[in-house]
Amino acid sequence: MEGELERLNSSSEKRYFPESLDSSDGDEEGSLACEDLELNPFDGLPYSSRYYKLLKEREDLPIWKEKYSFMENLLQNQIVIVSGDAKCGKSSQVPQWCAEYCLSIHYQHGGVVCTQVHKQTAVQLALRVADEMDVNIGHEVGYVIPFENCCSSETILRYCTDDMLQREMMSNPFLGSYGVIILDDIHERSIATDVLLGLLKDVLLARPELKLIVNSSPHLISKLSSYYGNVPLIEVKNKHPVEVVYLSGAQKESFESILRLIFEIHHSGEKGDIVVFLACEQDIEKAYEIVCQEGSNLNPDLGELVVVPLYPKEKCALFKPPDETEKRGQVYQRRVVLTASFGESLIWSNTVKFVIDVGVERRKVYNPRIRANSLVMQPISQSQAETRKQILASSSSGKLFCLYSEEFASKDMRPFKPAEMQEANLTSLVLFMKRVDIAGLGHCDFMNRPAPESLMQALEDLDYLAALDNDGNLSEFGIIMSEFPLDPQLSKSILASCEFDCVDEMLTVAAMVTAPSCFSHLPRGAEEAALTCWKTFLHPEGDHFTLINIYKAYQDATLNSTSEHCVEKWCHDYFLNCSALRMADVIRAELLEIIRRIELPYAEPAFGSKENSVNIKKALLSGHFMQIARDVDGSGNYLMLTHKQVAQLHPLSTYSITKKMPEWVLFHKFSISENNYIRITSEISPELFMQLVPQYYFSNLPPSESKEILQQVMDHLSTISAMKKEQKMCEQCPETTEQRCTIQ
C-alpha cells in the first residue's frame, strides 16, 4: 500500500498534491520550465494556462488540505466517508482524485462514477470538472441523466443521476465498468440513493477491488457510521461563521415579511445576492410577480434588482456567479433567487450574502390506501435548515434570516429530512428490485425500511398490471415493462398499444406526460391571449389527444423552420414551453429506440380516425384503470372510483375550456391539496372500462354508486355476450337438427 501511495506522489503525479505535501527542493525556475512542458496524463496534451488558474482556485477550497489524507485512506480501505458542508468542494474534487487513483493503476478495475440526486448538478459538475481537468466534456469527463447521455468509450469520470446508476444495475448488477463509485448528496435521501447504499453492500463483498466513497453533510455521519461500521472518515471544516437572525413573529405573515426584508436589504446598500427559500413552487410564482412589479419602482441609484425563479425541472437551472464578461460595463445588479426545498443543491454562487428561510415546506406524501399524493405543509428538518445556512459558508459576512423562532427550530423541526422511500409510491422500486432478482426486499439492507403498507400496495398494483406471475416473480410482461424508464402504469399502456395498433400515438402521450408541462408560465394579463392560442390544439376526445396535437404541431414547426430561433418564436407565440417540447422529443426518441431494440410491433400512425381514438383509450385504460373518476352531480365534481375523494378538472383541461363535462374520465395525475385537481383527463365510456379492467381489481373496489352503475354495465355486456353466443349456436342449429332426423 505504501508503494502505491509513493507511486501516486512521484514525479509525473506530483502536481496532484498540494505544494505543502511536496517534499522536493527543486528550484523555482526549473519548476516553471517543467510546467511549460507538462502534459495532461488524461489526454496527453499540454496543460492550458486556464488549468493553472483553476488549480489555484481549487487549492483555496476547504477540502483541498484533506487530499493527502483522502488518497491514503482510499488506497488502504474499500469504503471512505467524506463529511463536509456545502461549498467545501467535495463534489468536484473527490471525483478528480479518484480519477487520478484509477489512472495510477491503469484503469484495471474501471473508471469513476459519481452520482447526483439532481440532474442539474450532474450536468454542471461535469462541465466544471472537465474544465478543471483541462479535458473535453463528453470525452474524458461526461454525464448521464435521464434521456441524455454525454459520454463516450473514452470517458473515465462520469457524473450521473442516482436513478441512472440504479437502472444500469439491471443489465450490469455488479457495475463492473467502475473501479470507484462515489455516492454524493446522501443527505437528500432519495429512493435511488438509498437503494444504491443497500445494494452496493453486496456488490462490495463480491468485488473486493471496488472502492466506495460516500459524500454527506455532517449531520448524517453518525447514521452512516453505524450503517457501514468502522470505516475511515474525512471531515472538512467550515471556513466562516454565519450570523443567524431569528424573526419569531414573522412566520404568520411570512410573505409580507419576505418582501419587506428583500427591499430593506436592497435599500441598505450592502452588496450581495439574496436567496429566499419559500414553501412551494406556487409561492415562487407569486413572489416572482410581486418582487418584479415592486422592483421596477425602486430607485435606480441603488442598482438593478434582478429576480431569478429557480424551479426543479429545468436541466441547467443552477444559480451561479455571473461571468466576468457579464459584469463589465454594467450597473450594479443584485440578484434575488426564489426557490424551495429542492434548491439547496442548486445554489452555486459565492456572491450570496443573504438567505431568507421561511422554515416550512410543502411535501408530497403518498397515501397507499387511496393511491394518491397529499401535499402537506410542514416544518423543514434541522438538517435542511443547516444546509441552507451553509450556502453562506464561503461568505465572510453572510446573514441568515429565519422567519421562525429558535424554539420552533428545536421543538417543531425533525432532526433529519425524511427518507423519500418512506413517503413515496414504491411501485417502480419494487419492479426494479424484482428485476435485479432480489428474492424479497429483506435481502437489501435499507438504511430506513420502506413502510410495509406501501410495499403491499406496490405488489398489489404490479399484480393488477400483470407484471407478476403466480409465484410473485416478474412475468414476461413485467420484464418488458422494466425496460422502460417510466412509471409502470405508463409502461403497461405502451405494451397494450402494441396490441391495439397505436404505438406511435402512445409514445407521444408517454413523452408529453413525462416531460415538464408544455404550457408556459403566464404573465399577468396574458391568460386570455394564451387560451385563444391553446384552443387551436384542443381535441374533443380529451387532454391526452390535445397533447398529441401540440406535439404534432411542434414537429411541423420544427420541420418548416429554417433555424432554432424560428421554433422558439413559434413556441413563444403560442405560449408553449420550448424546452419542455424539446425534452418530450428526446424522451420519445429513446422510447422508440427501446421499442425497436426489444422488437415490439409498431403500427403506422393513424391519428384522427375514430377507430384509432378508441384504440388509444384502450391502451390508456390498460395501464391506468386505477385512475378513473365519475362526475357524480353533473357539475364537475368527480368522485374517484378507488376512494371517496372528490376532485375538479384542472382549469387548463380541454373540458374546462370547452365547458363540456364528461361523466366518466381517465386521469393521469391527482394530488390532495387545497385545489383537488385531476390533471390530463380524457373521456372514457363505462363499457370500455368494463371490457379492459381486470375482474379481480373491479371486485376489490369499495362499494359505491359508481361501482353499482359499472356492475349494471357488466351485467348488460354479459347478457349481450350470451345472446350473441346463443344466436351463433342457433345459426348452426337447423343443419344439425336435420342431420339428426335423418340418422333417426
From TrEMBL:
Domain Helicase ATP-binding intervals: 71-237
Region entry Disordered, spans: 1-30
Key words, A-Z: ATP-binding, Helicase, Hydrolase, Nucleotide-binding
Compositional bias ranges of the Basic and acidic residues kind: 1-17
SUPFAM superfamilies: P-loop containing nucleoside triphosphate hydrolases (SSF52540)
Short name of any one Pfam family annotated for the protein: WHD_HA2
Keyword ATP-binding among UniProt keywords: yes
Protein's organism: Equus przewalskii (Przewalski's horse)
InterPro entries reported in the protein's UniProt record: DEAD-box_helicase_OB_fold, HA2_WH, Helicase-assoc_dom, Helicase_ATP-bd, P-loop_NTPase
Highest classification ranks of the organism: Eukaryota, Metazoa, Chordata, Craniata, Vertebrata
Record-given protein name: Pre-mRNA-splicing factor ATP-dependent RNA helicase DHX32 isoform X2
Annotated GO MF terms: helicase activity
PROSITE patterns, A to Z: HELICASE_ATP_BIND_1
Source superkingdom: Eukaryota
Keyword Transcription in annotation: no
